[in-house]
Amino acid sequence: MFNDAIQLLKENQDCLNILRHYALQEKPAEEEEEKSTWTKRLYEQAEHAEENEADPSCEAHGLLIAYGYLDIELAGRDAGIHYRLSGAGKKALAQMETQLTTQDDQRLAS
What we know:
- This protein is an alpha+beta fold.
- Helix content is 49%, strand content 14%.
- The chain has a three-stranded antiparallel beta sheet with strand order 1-3-2.
- β2 (70-76) and β3 form a beta hairpin.
- α1 crosses α4 (87-109) and α2 (13-24) crosses α3 (58-66).
- The radius of gyration is 16 Å and the shape is elongated.
- The protein starts with a helix and ends with a helix.
């Protein structure tokens, strides 16, 4: 199953970018007891998108939640849903970054 989930990140740049975004929101462990920080949803609306057009990151967020890479929390009626990187999300992102770095190193060596 984990390999299938890694394949998701290889094939879907939006999912990878969203995981990277939430990883940047993390606070160092010494600053906070909880290692993960709840943050508002990342919205990536196109600059000239129609008002009735769906948020392009909706599907990617859904996939990441389904694969267990993002945790969600209902913060309240006015605050909406908050997200954070799950342990599985951190592991998958680290593995992807390692694979991408290795591929870049191999291309440079060629």
